[in-house]
Write a structure and sequence with these properties.
With about 260 residues, the chain is mainly alpha-helical. The protein has helices spanning about 1-20, 35-65, 75-100, 105-135, 140-165, 170-185, 220-235; strands spanning about 190-200, 205-210, 240-245. InterPro entries: Cation_efflux_CTD, Cation_efflux_CTD_sf, Cation_efflux_TM, Cation_efflux_TMD_sf, CDF_Transporter.
Length: about 260
Amino acid sequence: MADAVFDPLSNVILIAANRATRFVDPRRFPSGRARLETVGNIVFCFLMSAVSFILIAFSVRDLAERSDHGGVREFHSSAIIAAITSFVTKFGLFLYCSTLRRRYSQVQIVWQDHRNDLFINGLGILTSVGGAKLAWWIDPAGAIVLSLSIAILWCQTAFAEFMLVVGVAASVETHQLITYVSLTHSSAIAGIDTVRVYYSGPRLIVEVDIVMEKTTQLNVAHDISEGLQYKLESLPSIERAYVHVDYETRHKPEHCYIKGL
């Protein structure tokens, strides 16, 4: 029930974040608002973590109130039926989201929610039956262990999403792909000086420094670099690409990383 109460609110946040990224005033947000998706994912993670902490609080209270009592709990078939119904429904949604999670970051988050719900409902059925057939404390103790595990999973997901907002570097394979595409774009490109690929929310920003002969005419260098920019931005998950033209590779890095706040 606690999970069902939080699900509509958290999904409304995901929907609002998704719609906000589609309607953008370029004068106010020149780089778009795609990072709002990641922010919505982080809020979603913390809301679902709150569900786990609520369940832990109820379970601890249950253990404290019944600490002097032995025996087993009363078996309620209606509770088991409700949990089984929820398990089957979540399993269907889990399979459906599995087909889309690689394409949309928010579907990935919803897929993780359904995965966690399968653990909650599946083990919840077992601990409920165990509390009714073996010992009463199995139910609340199992809820505490399960809720802690789910909270840790959501916190790990929130940290991973937070790193995307900060601007963590992309994988080595992605860097290699960008380097290969840039180097083979034109025979006039003599080499690659620098390649930077990093996340800006759910998508990637690419910075490439290509090397050309110093005698290359300006219009030729412009057309080649602009064509490479369009090619890179046509790749999946690339938000923007910036191409800089150099004529040598002995210079210092163009950007200073240490800046006063």
